[in-house]
Amino acid sequence: MNIKKTRLLLIVLGMLLIMLLVLLIALSIGTSNISIFDVLNFFYGNANDNTILIVKYIRLPRVITSCITGAGLAVSGCILQAMLQNNLADPFTLGISGGAAFGATIALILKLSTVIFVPICSFLGALFSAIIVYLISFRFQRIEFDNNIMILSGIVVNYVFTSIVMLILILTKTNNFQSAYMWLMGSFSIFEDTIIYIASIIIIVGIIILSMSGNIINIITLGSDKAKTLGLDFNKKIKFFFIISSLITSSTVAISGVIGFVGLIIPHIVRKIISSNNLILIPMSAFIGSIFLLICDSLSRMFVVISLPIGIITNIIGGLFFIYLLVEEY
After folding, report:
1. The pTM is what?
2. What are 3-57's pLDDT values in tens digits?
3. Count of CB atoms within 10 A of residue 86's CB?
4. Residue 149 burial (CB < 10 Å; 0-12/13-18/19+)?
5. How is residue 59 annotated by DSSP?
6. Residue 148 half-sphere exposure toward CB, CA atoms < 13 A
7. Which domains does the chain have, with CATH numbers?
8. CB 103 within 8 A of CB 122
9. Contact 73, 67 (CB under 8 A)
């Protein structure tokens, strides 16, 4: 037992060092030439005005946002994989990406303020699609929860919303097509302080609630029969965790657009190298998810003058990882 605790402590310390290094590198990457030493001087209070302006008001908010988003998506992935007892599930399996895309497209087509209304409409669209999946799946849960019905509901809802989005973009003559596309691929380039604050609070509170529910989630992974034997109201808990994970995912969409595969990749990595116990899995997934998305965001800003949509980076990494999972399991 002591060996396991020591190993976990060493892993956490190692992750903290990696996080610190990645944070410094992320703050130094961009079109303006700022070195890691300049970033260190910023934290020590010895930086010049130009460095303070760029780091404090441009790069630091982006870094914090990417960390919170990565943590939220990773934790949502953990919960959905436990709920659905399917290791290939992620937050966007349940149609949330399609709903978010629909909301963002409506805002852009109506030429509403990009900074304010695109995130709000994305959040509402994502939440709306989650509600539809919830109503469809639990409408058919006459006796007990069936994870296959929820997965199929999510796939159907996602395809319907995605098709509507494509139809709108084809039929509507708009100059905002590129903005819509960039948002749908994930982006940290749109900042609205109030939205980020509210969404971040929802994500952080949701992560805390789910982290404290690790033992209950462990019981859920045993299946409905064993859970009921242990005195757990299985269906009620499933509904509760679905609502929390949907709120977290919808909030991440509000501040970053649609970023896929984070909720699929990170829980697998944590299970492999650390633990499958949800008491450890959930908080460690949040931690490693924030590091992963911070790295992806840094890569998206590293090679070109303008930032690539971060979803391109995560989709490439996630696609390769998905192929690896299929080869390994089948």
Report:
1. 0.89
2. 677 877 888 888 889 889 999 888 888 777 788 888 888 888 888 888 888 888 8
3. 15
4. middle
5. I
6. 0
7. 2-329 (1.10.3470.10)
8. yes
9. no
